[in-house]
User: What shape does this take?
Amino acid sequence: MSDSKPLSGKLALVTGASRGIGAATAEALAREGAHVILVARTAKALEEVEDRIHAAGGSATIAPLDLTDGEAIGKLGAAVSERWGALDILVLNAAMLGSLTPVEHIDPKEYSRILTLNVGSNQALIAAFDQMLRKAERADVIGVTSSVGHEPRAFWGAYGSSKAALENLLGAYADETEHTGKIRVQIVDPGATRTRMRQLAFPGEEPESVKPPEAVAAFILERLASVAQTGELVRAP
Assistant: This one.
């Protein structure tokens, strides 16, 4: 029965939900009973994820959106708030890798796009959904980072600095909301995972040599069910 599922009656929103970790996490949340709002740029890919969720007996709503458009994020927040009122789970997963290049060769325009998507859009999402998170009985914010956000690596300066900024942003939000006792922020480093981004970064790597996105999704569900404190940064095994 659906009401026996741990996330029954909960509302979740997942960005970058059209593939990889985002899609796997959205499907896992839906299996546990949550209604999931799927956010990404490509409507067709979102529809495929939605179809899989429905076929498995779950429920979802797609929201095709360019996350570099702050105004569109604000409109999404208003629309979701009008329909549901409270948001229980916010998974900030969408990100852009960009070119792996020495710091002095970083293209300013590409770097601006990386920072806009990887940092700015997440701040805009928090701003748009903060009141809905506060209205939930207990809300979780999961931010997906990378080891290069806290362990600098040659040629990863653009992407790594964006993830470092994201970690700091989420840490600040955790500190600011801790007193409410209602919002818990967790920062998840998925580690080596079989995603399109990983394939772009390591084209010679055998995909089967790293864990699938579903393993990260399972870890995120474990974190949601845990008694972890707000602001923790953890790495998936």
User: Anything to note?
Assistant: Strands lie at 11-15, 35-40, 59-64, 89-92, 139-144, 183-189, 232-235.
